[in-house]
């Protein structure tokens, strides 16, 4: 049972209603996570703004989805694993092997693997990474701007993981459960 209520977009008012209308127009639905975030329009708007900004970044949607899976697995967030597995496979067209490897912070592509290893290190070390962690991702070919975006993707996904784990958000995607891979 959920711990925080998901708002009905038809009954929402004010800024949350405006945000829900925009989400509905873009996605054709308002996912439960966003419906629950709508209890605070500031939370929902902050999430949407950062997500939108990162969507325009240099990392691209494929790496963004893979980072989301790495972070979700590390934080045991079934909602985010389910959502990003669906989005990754159906919308971004990532193969299932790559989706599964990303949950472990791995990839068959060495450059992507470096980004996912760095993302996992950020989560497991609470953001206090070492010089060698940063050098490894730089050596893989990531610019300082790209490294900043990896950090921002991790932060965005930590927000959604913590939010969904707190709310116990009802999963409205095909369910994927964590393997608790560390």
UniProtKB/TrEMBL annotation:
Organism name: Arenibacter troitsensis
Protein name: Uncharacterized peroxidase-related enzyme
This protein's record includes keyword 4Fe-4S: no
Keywords: Oxidoreductase, Peroxidase
Residue span, Carboxymuconolactone decarboxylase-like domain: 43-84
Superkingdom of origin organism: Bacteria
Database matches in InterPro entries: AhpD-like (IPR029032), AhpD_core (IPR004675), CMD-like (IPR003779)
Gene Ontology molecular function: peroxiredoxin activity
Organismal lineage: Bacteria, Pseudomonadati, Bacteroidota, Flavobacteriia, Flavobacteriales
Gene3D superfamilies named among the record's database cross-references: AhpD-like
């Amino acid at each position: 049972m959920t711990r925080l209520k998901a708002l009905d977009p038809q009954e929402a008012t004010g800024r949350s209603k405006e945000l829900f209308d925009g989400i509905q127009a873009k996605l054709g639905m308002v996912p439960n996570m966003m419906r629950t975030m709508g209890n605070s329009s500031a939370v929902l708007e902050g999430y949407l703004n950062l997500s939108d900004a990162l969507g325009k970044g240099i990392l691209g949607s494929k790496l963004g989805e893979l980072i989301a899976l790495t972070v979700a697995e590390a934080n045991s967030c079934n909602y985010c694993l389910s959502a990003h597995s669906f989005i990754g496979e159906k919308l971004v067209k990532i193969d299932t092997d790559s989706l599964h490897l990303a949950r472990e912070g791995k990839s068959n592509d060495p450059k992507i693997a470096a980004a996912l290893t760095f993302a996992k290190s950020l989560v497991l070390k609470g953001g206090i990474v070492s010089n060698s962690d940063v050098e490894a991702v730089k050596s893989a070919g990531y610019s300082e701007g790209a490294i900043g975006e990896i950090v921002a993707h991790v932060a965005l996904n930590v927000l959604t993981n913590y939010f969904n784990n707190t709310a116990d958000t009802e999963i409205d995607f095909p369910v994927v459960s964590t393997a608790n891979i560390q």
